[in-house]
User: Which sequence fits this backbone?
């Protein structure tokens, strides 16, 4: 299922063919648990500092407490950010956003799209990971969509987690096929326009040749009439 963020901020002006969203409560929980722990630690430092055997100097105590509390908000922000992985398939692109990060892949550049099992050992875990085959945007275990594509001529591979990996792969391949047919139609249209332009130029050249020929014939006729008039005038003078 899609959401407002996907429709308004990912696809923008393009027509959306398919939207996929995977919510990872596990990833959110792992990151989010550190938020209350950080706040509890900040409160403990503030309360227990005076009785501690190694207290934090009073001059910097507010800064230390604020920094630990801010760390809690950072973990909370990360939990919200990495809780949702969104993928949008439009008429021209596959758009991936894991939080604020993810690739925009043109359909025309994709050379393969398949469903595979995610091997976390190759990527060192879950989340946004860099592995031997490329990047992975995977919030948890299970099937993922693997895309092979060309980035300015360079082969690349990306693995994308999904709420329904098989459905996402099917829709991507359908969009690829439709985009391919559209490119063929555009190419045929351009070929037809080129052929029509060639015929038009040939017709213009034919008309121009006919005009030049008509002008030549007319000039010859005028010249013949002039010569005939001069001959007749000369005969009249000779008779006189």
Assistant:
């Amino acid at each position: 299922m899609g959401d407002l963020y996907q429709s308004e901020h990912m696809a923008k002006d393009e027509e959306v063919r398919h939207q996929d969203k995977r919510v990872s409560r596990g990833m959110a929980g792992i990151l989010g648990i550190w938020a209350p722990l950080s706040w509890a630690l900040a409160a403990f430092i503030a309360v227990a500092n005076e009785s501690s055997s190694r207290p934090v100097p009073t001059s910097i105590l507010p800064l230390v407490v604020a920094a630990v509390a801010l760390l809690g908000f950072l973990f909370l922000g990360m939990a919200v950010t990495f809780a949702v992985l969104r993928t949008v398939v439009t008429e021209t692109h596959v758009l991936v956003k894991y939080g604020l990060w993810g690739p925009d892949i043109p359909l025309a550049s994709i050379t393969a799209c398949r469903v595979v099992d995610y091997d976390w050992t190759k990527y060192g875990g879950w989340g946004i990971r860099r592995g031997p085959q490329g990047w992975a945007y995977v919030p948890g275990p299970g099937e993922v969509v693997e895309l092979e594509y060309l980035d300015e001529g360079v082969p690349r591979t990306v693995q994308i987690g999904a709420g329904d990996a098989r459905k996402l792969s099917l829709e991507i391949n359908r969009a690829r096929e439709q985009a391919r047919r559209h490119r063929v139609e555009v190419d045929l249209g351009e070929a037809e326009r080129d052929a029509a332009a060639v015929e038009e130029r040939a017709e213009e050249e034919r008309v121009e040749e006919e005009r030049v020929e008509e002008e030549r014939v007319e000039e010859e006729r005028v010249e013949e009439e002039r010569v005939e008039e001069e001959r007749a005038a000369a005969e009249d003078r000779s008779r006189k």
User: Anything to note?
Assistant: Residues 165-239 form the longest helix (75 residues). The chain has a mean pLDDT of 81.
